[in-house]
C-alpha cells in the first residue's frame, strides 16, 4: 500500500477519455483531486485506430485534470477493453515441508506454478489474480501465510491482452508524455469502484456499458473470477435510431438520451416527437415507439451476456446474487429494469463509492472505470483496497438530482415539465421536435 501518493487513472474509452487523479492519504483513504474528460478520438471499440488523434485527446484529458488538481501527471494506470483480453483460470500447487508453516515464498511458488501455462506468444499478461487458497483440502482461505499443511493449492485468474492493441495504447500514452504504470481490465476497474462491502462476500456480475463495447466482469467474493466483452454498446442503439428515423447520429444520440427508454412501458406515455429526417420530410413518433426501437438492441446485449455466463459458469441466476451496471449507457431510462428481467437477479446502477474529494463530479456510472483505475493502482492486486470500506473513509456525496436507479425501485418518473429536465445538450434544429404533452401543461 502506497501512502501520501498521487495515483492517476486514464480510462481510454470509445466515447470519452477520462483522467482521474487520486491522492492516497495516510491510512489509505482516497481523495479524488482532479478529473478531466474529453471526447474520445482515434478509438474504435476499445482499440486505437488513429495514434495521433488518440494521443492528442489523451493529452487534453490529462491537461484538464492537471489544471483542476494543480498536480503534474507523470504516470498513469490505463484501462483495457475486454475485447483484447483472454482470460483463463489456472491451478497451482506448492508442496510444504513437514512441520513448517507456510511462508510468502510458498504462496509465490504456488502462484508461479499456476502461471506456468503455455500462452499464445501474441499475448501479454495483464493480471495474475490469485483466488482463494486451499491448504490440505481446506478451501476458502484468503491468506495461508502462517498456516500449517503439506499441500498448498491456488486458483489463479490470468488475464492476458493481445500484444498489438496494448502496444498501440502504450504508444499513445507515451507520446502524450506519460509513463504507463500498469494496465487494468476495464470491467475490473469498474467493479473495484462500485462493489459494496456486502457484495465482497457474494458473486456479482459487473456490466460496464460503454459506447462501442459492453465489458463484463464476474467477481466471486471480491476476486475477479471471469471476464468477457460484448462488442455492442450504446453507440449501436444510437445507430439503430439514426437508421430507422433517418436522422444524423448526433441527433439520434440526443433523442436517445432525452426521451429514450430501454423498456417501452417506462417511456413517457404522453410524449410525441416530431422528427425532421435528413431528407427534410417530417414525421411524428411517440416516446413509446422510440423505445420499441431501442429495446431489441439493449435486450440483445443482456442476452449475449447471459449466454456467455451460462456457457462458462452456469445459469446466471444460480451462480450470481446480483448485477451492477456501470458505464454511460447504464443511464438510459429503464436499463436496470430490463436487465432485471433478463437476468432474473437484483440489478443496481453502480456509482464510484468509498472515496472523498470531488465525489460530486465522479459519482456517476460513467466514471466507475476511471476511479477504479486509481483504486487498482493503490493495491495492484485486483481487489478493492481495504481502506475503501474503512470507518474513517469520507462518505461519497450523492450526484446532484441524479436518483440512484435500483431495479427494485419504481421506474424513474419522466420529467413533468421541461424546466425540471436534466440539462442536456440541446438537439440541433433539424430535429424539429415538439413535445405536445409537456407544453400543454406548461404554457
Ligand atoms: N444519459 C444517458 N442516457 C443514455 N445513454 C447515455 C447517457 N449518457 C451516456 N450514454 C451512452 O453511454 C455511452 C458511452 O459510455 P461511456 O461509459 O460514457 O463511454 P465509453 O464508450 O468511452 O466507455 C454512449 O453510447 C452514450 O450514448
Ligand atoms: Mg468506458
UniProtKB/TrEMBL annotation:
Region annotation Disordered: where it falls in the sequence: 413-432
Domain SHS2 as annotated: residue spans: 7-194
Subcellular location: Cell membrane
Membrane topology, as annotated: Peripheral membrane protein
Any single biological process term in GO: FtsZ-dependent cytokinesis
Gene3D superfamilies reported for this sequence: 3.30.1490.110, 3.30.420.40
Tagged with keyword Metal-binding: no
Entries under InterPro entries matching the protein: ATPase_NBD, Cell_div_FtsA, FtsA/MreB, SHS2_FtsA
Swiss-Prot/TrEMBL keywords: Cell cycle, Cell division, Cell membrane, Membrane
UniProt KW Nucleotide-binding keyword: no
GO cellular component, one term: cytoplasmic side of plasma membrane
A Pfam family assignment: FtsA
Superkingdom in the source lineage: Bacteria
Subunit structure: Self-interacts. Interacts with FtsZ.
Function noted in UniProt: Cell division protein that is involved in the assembly of the Z ring. May serve as a membrane anchor for the Z ring.
Family membership: Belongs to the FtsA/MreB family.
Classification via HAMAP family: FtsA
Name assigned to this protein: Cell division protein FtsA
Species of the source: Deinococcus indicus
